[in-house]
Amino acid sequence: MQVRYGTPRFTGTGPQGHRGRMRGRLLANEAALADYEILEMLLFLGIPRRDTKPLAKSLINRFGTLADALAAAPDALGLPERAASALALVADSATHLARPERLERPTLDSWDALIRHIAPALRGDASPGLAALLLNSRNQLLAEPTWPGIPDPAGFPRAMLRHALEQHASAVLLVRHGSGRPRLTQADRTLFAAVQDAAGPLTVTLHDLVVTGQGGWTSLRQSGLC
Questions:
Q1: What is the pTM of this model?
Q2: Where are the chain's structural domains?
Q3: Band of pLDDT at residue 176, cut at 50, 70 and 90
Q4: DSSP secondary structure string for all residues of the chain
Q5: Digit-coded pLDDT (tens) for 38-55
Q6: Architecture in CATH of 111-219
């Protein structure tokens, strides 16, 4: 039977719920929690010293479904701000989880994988400049912002690390694409040191700085310069 908006689904609130029992069921990975039980547990977070089962049932009676209750405007719920925020956070999380993700992210966990990724640059197909390979904890590529030339070490670390934090990256690998023979410069070492100093307090790991050129590449760590 289809439930229409506003049609009561419960005739009474029944016995008072027990939070410990509910948490135990959730942690035991039981998949049989009713909509009102899920809502009841969410309300625990915002109303710590109150039986939230009657309120959860009332909200579902009022809005029709758990999804409709979570999607309701916070000021339409009639809840304390803390409880309304807990429900809004769940709704926002669901929106993020529903976004399409890239099916495949390159995993750059070895030199071979990195060389495959920068192969176009080794063929001369990349414009001169610097790329920041932003990686997650499994060394999967999240994003690859680029800058022309060799950026100013005074301003670049902050701008690049802002990108890293926005992508929730845990590591960075810098790649400078050159037009001639791959050669490390003092500017490369200065830039690497500036980024390393800025990244440390943010718990972002700087793996290396790689320089590509005509048919080849070199890196600071491979050369023992960092």
A1: 0.56
A2: 19-97, 111-219
A3: very high
A4: -PPPTT----S---SPP-HHHHHHHHHTT-S---HHHHHHHHHHHH-TTS--HHHHHHHHHHHSSHHHHHHS-HHHHT--HHHHHHHHHHHHHHHHHTSPPPS---B--SHHHHHHHTHHHHTT-S-SEEEEEEE-TT-BEEE--EEESS--TTTHHHHHHHHHHHTT-SEEEEEEE-SSS----HHHHHHHHHHHHHHGGGT-EEEEEEEEETTEEEETTTTT--
A5: 888 888 777 877 788 888
A6: 3-Layer(aba) Sandwich (3.40)
